[in-house]
Write a structure and sequence with these properties.
The structure holds two protein chains of two kinds. By secondary structure, chain A is of the alpha/beta class. Chain A has 28 helices and 37 strands. Chain A folds into five domains: 11-133 and 265-325, FAD/NAD(P)-binding domain (3-Layer(bba) Sandwich), CATH 3.50.50; 148-261, FAD/NAD(P)-binding domain (3-Layer(bba) Sandwich); 511-567, no CATH class; 570-651, Sulfite Reductase Hemoprotein,Domain 2 (Sulfite Reductase Hemoprotein, domain 2, Alpha-Beta Complex); 654-806, Sulfite Reductase Hemoprotein, domain 1 (2-Layer Sandwich). By secondary structure, chain B is mostly beta strands. Helix content of chain B is 6%, strand content 39%. In chain B, the strands form three sheets. In chain B, strands 2-3-4-8 form a four-stranded antiparallel β-sheet, with no helix packed on it. In chain B, a hairpin with a 2-residue loop joins strand 9 and strand 10.
């Protein structure tokens, strides 16, 4: 036998490697451990799990991962582990032998064996070639220089990340999807990127000119340089890449060149084995090549004259292949493809033929302010093509109409307005989803149809996570999450175990998702979160902005710069706004204690600023009403002068620690409740929380400080301190849960710090401790705070670390003139007469 | 001829924020600067309960009233969503970095 690299291998070695297996089943050998090869095996297992013994050869060192998701890995939005499709366990559980880092180099068809690079040789009964495609490298001088790479596998991503670590300039050759994704990722990683594209508009195969132009403008606004109609002459450099020269003479510096001009079927192996190869490996409707023992699937094949470079056809092929291998021949009929993509966070969709021409009518909708462009091409009353930019929600509708070839004359007027209108005037999104046929594709990343999602729900998947876990719909990029949720709602009605709701209408993620990703991806600013998590609004809304600000503040103490414009008015003005637009001011009185100096200062302020009312609050403080925003800094200066700081009566923060008089005076008092109250307030003041947070310390079980309706309450007893959590007054009064009893004051303080931090880190924004504890269960709190000594100590340390940055009096800053503009009017210049604008 | 009043520069207003202007004899005006550096001016009163809109969270081309979270469109002064009501708008234009607003009196005449 011949070996490609010419190395002689001994017969002993050869025979040693063909171990006769005790397994008498037919042996299916798969060449290629990528999306097509593994999907084919998955489909096969689903039909007849035990029928074949399976061995998979892969050239890469990895298990099967989602190649489409390499872009998010490059952009830092996902980790490699998150894009793995089949884990090691999957191979093991299904008895599949996986050979990695060892590409098959020859096929001996008469002997029915394949030989891998290592010399390993195995016999097959059926061979499946799924070698995918190779990047096309344009034959210009310098193409082999170090620093010139393609964008095809994890290794390329690693190379790009390495290059981006040093910053500098990058050139991406190719303004198609892959090139633009590479450019986006490199830009996010801090490189200055120029995209060189041969054609006059970007992504010309997927987008028409108008959408291509919108895309180009959006990318330029993000700092990329886009050169269209630009032809590469040469890649320059001595020993490594230094730049690119165009045919018109322009030179662009670059320390990295990514070539992403296209792919072509990887057919060398098949060609050498003597199989029929055209543009791809030729297969019939059952994915069988010119040799009945050899099959092929995926991007490497040519079916009926077509080759495909998208995932959707690949899923269709794998189904037909598996049907054939299990004797239920269905036959692949080719695929009509659509492209629904996020390029650099921008939604684009196209399907069918949108080149226009004779007999074609265009229906176009442009909404410039939203950056939306929609075009549907109709011919002979049928949809033949569609291009959507900026809003691709109706992509499935148009694609479905296109595939079915239905006459759309009757709904033509409403067609461009999309699903809600075209399907009969109902704006109910559930009705729209209900109207989709079973074979409509829901999840493009994983090729899951509506029918499959429905089957998965019928089989017991009753939550979003369960659907993701069973049929993989919405498990990758998440853009179909809304559709899956609608299907859940439709199938289960009232029974939906509705997961936590999305944060707000700006995102499809929940509070918990957002928080997890902020930590996992080390996000550092609100715009970064909105960008990486694909916010649907330019700068959020009044619901999500304060929440994001809090989550970042909590995750990055001392590092995150608070965004004042994402704070509610009270937290921005450090006072409570009242119905007439004036403010009320509450100075802090530690533990509810005060003295003549403080009382005088308060009395003086009331007189000096003519405050119409002073009131004792429920939290044992004095509240001064009716202060104008212009006077706030001066009021604070006066209160500061008497030693008082902000009482934070206005914040999602520690409000007050309420106390009773305790053992110092009270004949029933068992411990020094005022003393402990003051210590607790000194420790916790200034901390930002998911919601307001109140503490109380009662000196005996008579509980005069009402500690059992506070977020954290201490009830002193003779033998120590009973700790209570999760109470509140308000609309739904809730008494606390008893947490535990501790012996010393210091322990009471330590548990308080740990509990506060657990709440800060795990409760959702605007969720008070009462609903939080009802959600997670008091047992969980007990396990984290009482039983886990190490965990409690870690929480306490994190809380105190965070506090080391938060105990600066915000009033003092403002009284010293900081952010004075917040308290002052703009001063108009003297009116001037100008000629009326034309 | 219109009276235009120079009230300051763009950078006087925080991004996604607002400042107020008091013109003798007129209602207080809130001047907003959005995330994309557009400038709008409204009477500083929510149509609902007269909350000071200048103190709300500015998002997109809307502001959420600080009192009851009504969302008011900055361009039209109209309440968004289910809420109904409208706050008067004041013409505003940028001349370089300078912000000019129409004299509210001319607005009243026009209306």
């Amino acid at each position: 036998m011949e070996f490609q690299d010419g190395i002689e291998r001994s017969t002993d070695y050869e025979t040693a490697l063909i171990v006769p297996s005790a397994d008498v089943r037919e042996h299916l050998v798969v060449v290629g451990n990528g999306m097509a090869g593994c999907r084919a095996v998955e489909e096969l297992l689903a039909r007849d799990a035990g029928r074949y013994r399976v061995t998979i050869f892969g050239a890469e060192p990895h298990v099967n991962y989602n190649r489409i998701m390499l872009s998010p890995v490059l952009a830092g939005e996902k980790t490699f582990d998150q894009i793995v499709i089949n884990t090691r366990e999957w191979y093991d559980e299904n008895g599949i032998e996986l050979v990695t880092s060892d590409p098959v180099v020859t096929i001996d068809r008469p002997g029915r064996t394949v030989t891998a690079q290592s010399g390993r040789k195995v016999r097959y009964d059926r061979l499946l070639i799924a070698t995918g495609s190779d990047p096309f490298i344009i034959p210009v001088p310098g193409k082999d220089l170090p620093g010139v790479i393609s964008f095809r596998d994890m290794k390329d991503v690693d190379t790009m990340l390495e290059a981006a670590a040093d910053g500098g300039d990058a050139v991406v050759i190719g303004g198609g999807l892959l090139g633009l994704e590479a450019a986006h990722g490199l830009t996010l990683r801090g490189m200055k990127v120029t995209v060189i594209h041969l054609m006059p508009t970007l992504m010309e195969r997927q987008l028409d000119e108008a959408a291509g132009w919108l895309l180009k403008s959006a990318l330029e606004a993000r700092g990329q340089t886009i050169l269209t109609g630009a032809d590469t002459a040469e890649i320059m450099g001595e020993g490594k890449v230094e730049g690119v020269r165009l045919k018109d003479g322009r030179e662009i510096p670059a320390s990295l060149v990514v070539m992403a001009v296209g792919i072509r079927p990887s057919t060398a192996l098949a060609r050498e084995a003597g199989l029929d190869v055209g543009r791809g490996i030729k297969v019939d409707d059952h994915m069988v090549t010119s040799d009945p023992h050899v099959l092929a699937v995926g991007e490497c094949v040519e079916h009926d004259g077509n080759v495909y470079g998208l995932v959707a056809p690949l899923w269709d092929m794998c189904r037909s292949l598996a049907d054939g291998l299990t004797d239920r021949h269905s036959g692949y009929r080719g695929s009509v493809t659509s492209t629904k993509l996020k390029v650099a966070g921008l939604d684009v969709f196209s399907a069918g033929d949108f080149s226009g021409g004779e007999g074609c009518e265009d229906i176009v909708l442009r909404d410039a302010s939203r950056g939306v462009y929609k075009r549907v091409v109709v011919k002979d009353g049928k949809v033949v093509g569609a291009v959507l930019y900026g809003d691709t929600a109706d992509g499935n509708l148009y694609f479905d109409l296109l595939k079915k070839g239905e006459d759309v004359s009757e709904i033509r007027d409403l067609l461009i307005l999309g699903q809600a209108f075209a399907s009969g005037g109902s704006a109910d999104p559930l009705a729209a989803v209900a109207a989709l046929p079973d074979d409509a594709e829901i999840c493009g990343c994983n090729g899951v149809s509506k029918g499959q999602v429905a089957a998965s729900i019928a089989a017991g998947a009753c939550s979003l996570d369960a659907v993701r876990g069973t049929c993989k719909a919405s498990a990758s990029c998440g853009s179909c999450t809304g559709l899956v949720e609608s299907l859940l709602a439709l199938s289960l009605g009232e029974e939906v175990k509705s997961g936590p709701k999305t944060m707000c209408k700006c995102t499809s993620f929940t509070h918990d998702d957002v928080r997890r990703e902020i930590v996992a991806q080390h996000m550092k600013s609100i715009p970064e979160v909105m960008h990486k998590l694909h916010w649907s609004t330019p700068d959020g809304c009044s619901s999500c902005r304060p929440a994001l600000n809090y989550y970042l503040l909590c995750a990055l103490p001392g590092e995150y710069v608070d965004d004042q414009q994402s704070r509610f008015v009270n937290e921005r003005m450090h006072a409570n706004i009242q119905k007439d637009g004036t403010y009320s001011v509450v100075p802090r009185m530690w533990g509810g204690l005060t003295n003549p100096r403080e009382l005088r200062a308060i009395a003086d302020v009331v007189e000096k600023y003519d405050a119409p009312m002073v009131k004792v609050t429920g939290g044992q403080r004095l509240d001064i009403f009716g202060i104008k925003k212009e006077d706030l800094p001066a009021v604070w200066a006066d209160l500061n002068a008497a030693g008082m700081v902000s009482g934070h009566a206005y914040g999602k923060s520690l409000r007050t620690v309420k106390t009773c008089v305790g053992s110092e005076w009270c004949r029933f008092g068992t411990q020094d409740s005022t003393g402990l109250g003051v210590k607790t307030e000194r420790m916790t003041w200034g901390s930002w929380m998911p919601h307001k947070f109140k503490i109380a310390v009662s000196g005996c079980p008579r509980n005069c400080a009402e500690a059992t309706i506070k977020d954290f309450g201490v009830v002193c007893v003779d033998s120590g301190y009973e700790l209570h959590v999760g109470g509140n007054g308000g609309i739904h009064v809730r008494a606390t849960d008893f947490l535990c009893k501790v012996a010393t004051e210091q322990e009471a303080l330590d548990y308080c710090a740990a509990f506060t931090q657990l709440y800060r880190e795990e409760a959702r924004y605007l969720e008070r401790t009462a609903p939080w504890i009802e959600r997670v269960g008091v047992e969980y709190i007990r396990q984290r705070i009482v039983e886990d000594d190490t965990g409690r100590e870690e929480l306490r340390v994190r809380f105190l670390y965070s506090q080391s940055f938060s105990q600066e009096d915000p009033w003092a800053e403002r009284a010293a003139g900081h952010k004075a503009e917040l308290h002052q009017h703009l001063e108009p210049l003297a009116p001037q007469e100008l000629a009326a604008a034309e | 001829m219109n009276d235009w009043i120079d009230i300051g520069t763009l950078s006087d207003i925080p991004l996604r924020g607002a400042r107020t202007v008091q013109i003798a004899g007129e209602k207080e005006i809130a001047v907003f600067r959005t995330g994309d550096d557009k400038v709008f001016a409204l009477v500083n009163e929510c149509p609902h309960k007269k909350g000071p809109l200048s103190q709300g969270i500015v998002h997109g081309h809307s502001v959420a009233c600080p009192l009851h979270n009504w969302n008011i469109a900055l361009a039209s002064g109209e309440a968004q969503g289910e809420d109904k009501g409208c706050t008067p708008t004041i013409a505003v234009r940028l001349e370089g970095e300078r912000i000019l607003i129409a004299h509210p009196e001319s607005l009243r005449v026009a209306a």
